[in-house]
Amino acid sequence: QVQLVESGGGLVQAGGSLRLSCAASGLTFSNYAMGWFRQAPGKEREFVAAISQASGITYYADSVKGRFTISRDNAKSTVYLQMNNLSPEDTAVYYCAAPGGSYNLKIGETYNYWGQGTQVTVSA
């Protein structure tokens, strides 16, 4: 059974930083690209960042480029999202996800496995 467990969310002031972690189990982690998505209240889920299996390629939404960094540690089966210079617009529940056999890393519907999410709240 595949499990993705996010942690590291919380309340931070604008301009602050947080590091999210997502620990994976039940899958051969190194075989999977991984993605982070977020959903703010009243808004649709949106792509945040993704990383290839061997960390060679990363992708970012324009809204977080230059502020967020995705990385992974295949030995620990964990993917990270370092978030710097946070703004209130970054407030959302953040989810990590692993894609299915045929996928587009920026499209959530092509992901098979999801974590339960971690809340990030940025105060002005």
What do these coordinates show?
This protein has 124 residues and is an all-beta fold. 0% of the residues lie in helices and 50% in strands. The N and C termini lie far apart (40 Å).
Q: How would you classify the helix and strand content by structural class?
A: mainly beta
Largest sheet properties:
7 strands, mixed
Average pLDDT works out at 95
Contiguous uncertain segments of 5+ residues: none
Number of strands: 11
The helix content, as a percent range, equals under 10%
Outline type: globular
Strand fraction equals over 45%
> Given the structure, what is the number of helices?
0
Strand/helix succession = EEEEEEEEEEE
Can you tag this structure with a few keywords?
globular; seven-stranded mixed sheet; 124 residues; mainly beta
Concise synopsis of the structure shown:
The chain has 124 residues and is an all-beta fold. It has no helices and eleven strands.
Question: Secondary structure elements and their pairing?
Answer:
Layout lengths: L2 E5 L2 E4 L4 E8 L8 E6 L6 E6 L6 E3 L7 E6 L4 E6 L8 E8 L11 E4 L3 E6 L1
Parallel strand pairs: 2-11
Antiparallel strand pairs: 1-3, 3-8, 4-5, 4-9, 5-6, 7-8, 9-10, 9-11
